[in-house]
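Long-time lurker, first post. I've been practising inverse folding by hand and with some scripts of my own, and I keep getting stuck on stretches where the structure tokens seem ambiguous. Below is the full token string for one chain I'm working on. Before anyone asks, I'm not after the true native sequence, just a reasonable design that respects the backbone. If someone could post their per-position residues I'd love to compare against what I wrote down in my notebook.
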């Protein structure tokens, strides 16, 4: 089946500055997809993130790793294999909490998988340990197995010196028996030496073969790991097509939003231009009104001067009219006196006429 994504989220990816070991260096220009992958063939959990076709995170989860939340939206973990510290910036605290929970869950799963693997290796290695003693770790030779000529133990023959010193009737049969026993033990010793030599040669050959097999196994493991990483990268590239499409959709949406924002800014700019033109018109109108006001004020001053002149003329006219009224009144009084005198004269004439 290979590796399959089991959880994905989006975050901004950072790595610690290898020079200062303090500052964060962004490895992605925008939020990218960060996924947990599980390899069922090796029981391995990994965190993988791609920026385009470039793998910016390729971290295998081990039981001794720890994910630390340093703020409400930022978390980090150290990867000793990659010799770096990864940091993730999330859009919300809930995304960070969910990622941290998954990290703890897969870390525990990695620990259990490692324990099961160790148990299987112990069960596999038990028969080989029982068939060969623990001293096989050191180089063995025929001398270390059989001992030197001085250290070899031979079967003790029955004591016969006394028989040789004092021959008796039973001396010949006993000597014959001792010779047969010695030949038997010599044959057994020769067979043991041959077996020991064969076992030693086989052991030396097995030791050499084991060393060679270990070297070949290490080379095969390195090659398999390299090929596995390459296959994983290719699978990630092919397996994250949906994520890339979603990123493309998001980018298109972002472009549309930016275009709409740009259009809104252009409309606002046009409105501001119209307001500036209107302000210029208002300024022109203000200047015109100010000029008209100044003209009106000057006309008002002229009218006030004319009004003052008219008031003076009216006052003089009123004075003249009053003088005319006085002269007219005096004339009327004079006329009344004259009329009264004429009446008296008429009456006098009338009386004279009546008397004549």
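-- Answer (accepted) --
I ran through it position by position. Result:
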């Amino acid at each position: 089946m290979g590796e399959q994504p089991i959880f994905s989220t989006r975050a901004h990816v950072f790595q610690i500055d290898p020079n200062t070991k303090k500052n964060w260096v962004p490895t992605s220009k925008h939020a990218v997809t960060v996924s947990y992958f599980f390899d069922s063939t090796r029981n391995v959990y990994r965190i993988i993130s791609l920026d385009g076709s470039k793998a910016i995170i390729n971290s295998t989860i081990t039981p001794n790793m720890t994910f630390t939340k340093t703020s409400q939206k930022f978390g980090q973990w150290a990867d000793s294999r990659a010799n770096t510290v990864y940091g993730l910036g999330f859009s919300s605290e809930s995304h960070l909490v969910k990622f941290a929970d998954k990290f703890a869950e897969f870390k525990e799963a990695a620990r259990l998988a490692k324990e099961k693997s160790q148990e299987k290796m112990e069960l596999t290695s038990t028969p080989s340990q029982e068939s060969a003693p623990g001293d096989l770790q050191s180089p063995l030779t025929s001398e270390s197995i059989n001992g030197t000529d001085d250290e070899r133990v031979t079967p003790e023959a029955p004591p016969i010196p006394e028989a040789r010193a004092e021959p008796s009737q039973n001396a010949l049969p006993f000597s014959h028996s001792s010779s047969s026993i010695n030949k038997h033990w010599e044959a057994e010793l020769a067979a043991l030496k041959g077996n020991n030599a064969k076992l030693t040669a086989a052991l030396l050959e097995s030791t050499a073969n084991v060393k060679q097999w270990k070297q070949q196994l290490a080379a095969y493991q390195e090659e398999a790991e390299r090929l596995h990483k390459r296959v994983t990268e290719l699978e990630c590239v092919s397996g994250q097509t949906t994520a890339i499409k979603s990123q493309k959709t998001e980018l298109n949406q972002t472009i549309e939003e930016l275009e709409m924002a740009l259009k809104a800014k252009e409309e606002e700019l046009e409105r501001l231009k119209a307001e500036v033109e209107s302000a210029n018109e208002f300024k022109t109108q203000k200047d015109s009104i100010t000029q008209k006001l100044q003209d009106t004020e000057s006309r008002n001053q002229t009218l006030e001067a004319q009004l003052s002149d008219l008031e003076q003329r009216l006052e003089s006219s009123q004075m003249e009219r009053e003088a005319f009224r006085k002269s007219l009144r005096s004339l009327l009084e004079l006329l009344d006196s004259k009329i009264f005198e004429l009446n008296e004269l008429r009456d006098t004439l009338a009386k004279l006429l009546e008397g004549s």
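A couple of notes from the structure itself: The mean pLDDT is 78. The longest strand covers residues 3-16. Happy to go over any region you disagree with.
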